[in-house]
Amino acid sequence: MACGFRRSIACQLSRVLALPPESLIKSISAVPVSKKEEVADFQLSVDSLLENNSHKSQLDTQDQAQRLAEKLKCDTVVTAISAGPRTLNFKINRALLTKAVLQQVTEDGSKYGLKSELFSDLPQKRIVVEFSSPNIAKKFHVGHLRSTIIGNFIANLKEALGHQVTRINYIGDWGMQFGLLGTGFQLFGYEEKLQANPLQHLFDVYVQVNKEATDDKNVTKLAHEFFHRLELGDTQALALWQRFRDLSIEEYTQIYKRLGIYFDEYSGESFYREKSQDVLKLLDSKGLLQKTAKGNVVVDVSETGDLSSVCTVMRSDGTSLYATRDLAAAIHRKDKYNFDTMIYVADKGQKRHFQQVFQMLKIMGHEWAERCQHVPFGIVKGMKTRRGEVTFLEDVLNEVQSRMLQNMASIKTTKKMENPRETAEKVGLAALIIQDFRGLLLSDYQFSWDRVFQSRGDTGVFLQYTHARLCSLEETFGCGYLNDFNVACLQEPQSVSILQHLLRFDEVLYTASQDLQPKHIVSYLLTLSHLAAVAHKTLQVKDSPPEVAGARLHLFKAVRSVLANGMKLLGITPLAVC
Fold first, then answer.
1. What would the mean pLDDT of 552-568 be, rounded to a whole number?
2. The DALR anticodon binding domain covers which part of the protein (predicted)?
3. Residue ranges of the chain assigned to CATH 3.30.1360.70
4. CATH assignment, 1-92
5. What's the CA gap between 569 and 518, in Å, rounded?
6. Is 340 helix (H, G, I), strand (E, B) or coil?
7. CA-CA distance, 87 to 45, in Å (whole number)?
8. Is pLDDT of 503 > 90?
9. What percentage of the chain's residues is helix, strand, coil (to nearest 5)?
10. CATH class (in words) of the domain with range 126-381
11. Which ranges of 441-545 would DSSP assign to H, the alpha helix?
12. What are the start-end ranges of the E strands in 87-173?
């Protein structure tokens, strides 16, 4: 990737510095697009060469850059070398740059950027990603949206890089809340309402029984007894629970279909209710269990061994907890998938929980606990529909579709389409995902419907419209022009800026693969779309000489291809895919 230019520069540097080219490649970066016409294509930070020298000064670095620039020579690939502020700058032969970039995009297709030398020493791994994880017997809460789309992005990225990825939806289908729900349904449930609108009715029952339990201790006692019966395998209790579970997954599957997301495995806490007993026995055999004054069983996870930090693994009545089942699940997955890395995508409020689970795995002697990772994220604030506060994701998706249909109807240039509702949902989902992914995952953010649906600016709507416009350009002019092209026809500043930006795609993917932050790809795609919008206005295809039209179509096709690649990694289905 970077079409071999990075390696060519590294080879020349290696001869001067007496260092292997491989050790220099990652220090050579494509220069971000600038509004200045004259800008280098690649840059080497001299600081990275001197990082082991603790006595270096800014003056030393600048001097080193100047001396290195004088020792290096231009060739058929590099046409200019200069020293910048603590950097070495390289300009690539324009004709070679144009031909190599566009050829590489065409040849690599969906793999463009992924075949880069930046990934050449990347070992292929078995990776488990646990994400989404809604609680059954409740409608899909909007709070699970972030885990769902972030986990999908991480799985997409790891898979694109060649790793063997297993996507797990670890459903909350066990625990004390099912004692409450089971009791609540026996007290307030109606069969006809359950059949008509299963999860809405179960949600209403759950709200009512929680309210009753606050005022009536007998309801709480009945709930504990129901969950205890579940843990003991009572047939009637399990049959009711199984029905709630089946109805829930049936509805969740429809939500995931709308989101364009799939899982390799639907797992649940219930699967580990028996295995968690084995975990407790193992912890006991190692002398790690301690009983509190209230009768709960805990494990000391403090580094000092003074019980300053404990994790409860069993209630006083003998029933298991979330942490115990998480331990059982981790051990089972290691046995089943022999993963190299396991990633949990869950909100930042669960940070302490995962720290404790990973620490207990280490205490139990599982060295692979070091390879378990929690990817935390912040909270979305202010997500409301026209009807008020949002609780359910289905309401958000319906609102997205409805608002987007209205927007499309109000735009005079919108073409008639076969399935406007489906198109509206694709554009709306892109809008939701881009707003979510623009900042650091750990940050909370304020949701804004107005900002989400802007067709101009840094939005998902703008990305989709750009892609659709480029597709339309190919459909209108593509057939007769996309055979060969003259690189001399793509030397305008707008063309060069796009080519320079396309050079950087592999670096953006590399950065995202290191910190698992989608914002790098989002920022890159938005810049690419803005560059394409400017070029679309100034580099006319219609009425241009065939040679010029063909070259410009090649450029726009490359932009559309890379734009689609990046959108798919983010979990967005590009509109009007060619």
1. 96
2. 463-578
3. 1-92
4. 3.30.1360.70
5. 9
6. coil
7. 5
8. yes
9. 60, 10, 30
10. alpha beta
11. 449-452, 460-481, 493-503, 505-515, 519-538
12. 87-92, 126-130, 164-171
Residues of the chain with CATH 1.10.730.10: 399-570
Confidence of residue 479 (pLDDT cuts 50, 70, 90): low
Q: What is the CA radius of gyration of the chain?
A: 28
Max avg pLDDT among 149-158, 188-197, 213-222, 536-545: 149-158
Q: Quote the CA–CA distance of 340 and 97 in Å, as a whole number.
A: 39
Tokens 């890395």 appear where? 341
CA distance 152 to 236: 37
Cα three-residue angle 475-477-483, rounded to 5 degrees: 105
Query: Could you give the angle at the alpha carbon of 576 between the alpha carbons of 106 and 481, nearest 5°?
Result: 45
Helix, strand, or coil (residue 30): strand
181-239, pLDDT tens digit by residue? 999 999 999 999 999 999 889 989 998 998 999 889 999 999 999 999 998 899 999 99
Give one DSSP letter per residue of 197-253, joined into a string: SHHHHHHHHHHHHHHHHHH-HHHHHHHHHHHHHHHHT-HHHHHHHHHHHHHHHHHHH
CATH fit for domain 399-570, picks 1.10.730.10, 3.40.630.10, 3.40.50.300, 1.10.132.60: 1.10.730.10
Structure tokens that stand for 64 in this block: 């080193």
Please work out, in degrees rounded to the nearest 5, the angle formed at the alpha carbon of residue 153 by the alpha carbons of 151 and 159: 100
Half-sphere exposure of residue 102: CA atoms within 13 angstroms, side-chain side:
25
Instruction: Spell out the residues 6+ positions from residue 36 whose beta carbon is closer than 8 angstroms to its own.
Output: none
Whole-angstrom distance, CA of residue 117 vs CA of residue 6: 9
Residue 472: both structure tokens together: 């339309």
- 545 compared with 1, residue with greater pLDDT: 545
**Helices 235-259/198-215 angle, 10° precision:** 130
Say whether 41 sits in a helix, a strand or coil.
coil
Known catalytic residues?
138, 141, 144
327 and 280 in contact (C-beta within 8 Å)? no
Sign of CA dihedral 152, 158, 159, 164: negative
CA angle, 539 then 542 then 547, to 5°: 75
C-alpha–C-alpha distance, residues 218 and 203, integer Å: 21
Own/partner pairs for 363-371, CB < 8 Å, 24+ apart? 363/286, 363/288, 363/299, 363/301, 364/282, 364/283, 364/286, 364/288, 364/327, 366/330, 366/331, 366/334, 368/334, 368/339, 369/330, 371/339, 371/340, 371/341, 371/342
DSSP letter at 320 equals B
pLDDT tens for each residue of 370-380:
999 999 999 88
CATH 3.40.50.620 occupies which residues in the chain?
Answer: 126-381
CA 417, 421, 426, 429: dihedral to nearest 10 degrees?
A: 150
213 vs 130 pLDDT, higher one: 130
Which residues sit opposite 320 in a β-bridge? 314
Angle between helices 420-437 and 519-538 (to 10 degrees): 120
Q: What 3-state DSSP class applies to 86?
A: coil
Residue type, 169: N
